[in-house]
Predict the structure.
Amino acid sequence: MRAQNASFALFPSAAFAAFLLAWTSLAPTGRAAPAKPNIVVILADDMGYGDPRCYNPQSKCPTPHIDRLAREGMCFVDAHTPASVCTPTRYGILTGRYPWRSRLKRGVLGGYSPALIEPGRVTLPEYLRRKGYVTYGVGKWHLGLQNQRTDYAKPLRPGPLTVGFDHYFGIPASLDMVPYLFFRDDRPVEMPTDQTPASKQRRFGGGGFWRAGAIAPHFSHEQCLPELEKEALRILEAQKPGRPFFLYFALSAPHTPWMPRPQYWGRSGAGWYGDFVVQVDDVVGAVLRVLDKRGLAENTLLIFTSDNGAHWLPSDIERFGHRANGLLRGQKADIWEGGHRVPFIVRWPGKVRPKSVSKALLCQTDIFRTVADWFGEAAPGALPEQAAEDSVSFLPVLQGRMATARKSVVHQAVDGTLAIRVGSWKLCPKLGSHGFSSPKKIKPKPGGPEGQLYNLAEDLAETRNLWNEEPDLRAKLAAELQRAREAQGTAERAALR
């Protein structure tokens, strides 16, 4: 398939290597240090690899603003979340550490869960604050608050303000998890003194899925994303040249409840979900417009990605003809590619070549050390030993100096099952999706494969299990996975390279 209108095939081919032209390094060199770049990370919630049209020309969801990012930056076609569900991915992005090294070995947190990020751990916002940045967070937190079951009548510490954010405005967890409220910094905007009944999923005729429980009197599920957008734009409007800023913008959509505003109804060919994707795209467009208007775009490193694959069932594909996860196998929560391979676009004017496509293997944990690399602190020992342990800088990839920086990555399913990717090979020691897709678990048959082994270069859809055909390779990858599980600190970084 050929790239058309800034779109490219879901199955990367050797043709894309042509995009990886040599690009002059623009890292800090010479006598005068360049201005510190502003950094904006937009994290969609449950958006699949096949939703943006720049990744899937057949998408039923028009995404002109995300497509604009693709035209003006670099698209990664082999980028992965550290886990295939919400909470662990957010932990990995902010800490540069695999989430299974934390106390959360499976599943996600809730709205009353205690804080997950360990006391004293250096996070990406804390690192940037030490570099003179003002750090903002907007949106879905989902990393726990306080040291025990959250009491919203008390300061929300530990929380965003104790892990490096100067300011935070958002919701405690997913938009379908109680309690339903906004909090600013370390206090609720309004206490959850009312109760709401549960609502069924849209695909089953409901008004939008959420659980019954506590809700702030003036909280509206439908208005959540617009309120988060308003806050992010207010922050960007207030920025002035001279002091760099970091904005972590964690959207609440297109995760359930699928509740796009009325002006988006019918804008896609993928039902309520697709219309919500269109609204998410408009939020991205609003951010781009403010960056342009304020003269901030030229000195802003902007990353757009998603926290895991879409929760999109085979019945949804059949009904709408839309493949939210592209041609990948599986969906959100799975160990298969549809669970953790996601859109990842980087726009950085003057530093990243427009309309470029990278096949580099990437994990979202790598954002931390990539930023540190800009400051000349990516090498082992430059950061504290217990900081960004599972992060590898992809700055050389952005600059066109390397085709890839990372040689392996460990994937995690919702039930805690791990898989490892080395080169084009992927090994999972167990059978099944270990997530939402069927079959979730399969008991091995005598003489049959005990786990899964795929050559993604030839079989991206994971249809041919080569477990029995490649015993030596299988054993080697299993040993690599075990070493990764046991490694810590610089040893793990050395293994990743």
User: Anything to note?
Assistant: The first strand starts at residue 38 and ends at 45. The mean pLDDT is 92.
